[in-house]
Amino acid sequence: MSSFIIATFNVNSIRSRLELMEAWLRQRGGDIDVLAMQEIKATEEQFPFDFFERMGYACRINPQKRYNGVAICSKRTPDEVSIRFGSDILDGESRLIYARFGAMHLINLYAPHGEPEGPKYAYKRQWYDALIAWLDRNFDLRRDRVVLTGDFNVTFDDRDVYDPVLLAGTVGTLSGEREKLYRLIELGFIDAFRLLHPGQIQYTWWDYRGAKIWKNQGMRIDHMLISPPVKPYLQEVEVDMWPRRKNKIKPSDHAPLLGYFKPEILES
Questions:
Q1: Domain of 29: which CATH number?
Q2: Residues 68/43, Cβ–Cβ less than 8 Å
Q3: Cys-Cys crosslink for 73: which of 35, 51, 63, 102, Cβ 3.0 to 4.6 Å?
């Protein structure tokens, strides 16, 4: 089955993850076409462009020293790239990058983590409001092929949390956060993973502490949302657990989420 594969991966510092990235990409046989990465935690000068070039990818980044930062690395040169969005809140931190590949629009995001209350919680909700407004201004989701992916730092519902009672009231489960994901759905986006796997329990993030990866005590906070015109091209969505279960190579606390699409998604 021929596929155009997009992987979203919060790497939690790209410079700390190069050994893992090389092992993972080689283990997969180089089948990933686009890597959308979050929390690269690197400036333009620090980002390992040469490494990715050796692996067959050209990278565009929205960098930030020590914090945040997003990147899109691809085998195919994008037709457009943007890291500025005409919004003080969206442009204030390096959390968003846009690229167009033919007829497909790709937006890679790293949403604020937030807190259960206070200024950081307010900022997270304001950031989502700004993102939703930008998406609404720039795309017609009834006609445009849009893939919105990344680390949303929010779960949709209790299926996305290993213990809803224990974690009630914690970041990623709050009603004011989940409301923003529902607004994206109201805008027209579809949760690609749930579309194909409505009842599956699958997480994308596990705390380093307490061996939670081996107990599967995690949360699904990394998502791939698609506009309705993308639906006919969608083949599969899966979490690749291989990079998260590494012992000899220090993993990220996230596992990559992969979307498989018919290559025709790029054609006009």
A1: 3.60.10.10
A2: no
A3: 35
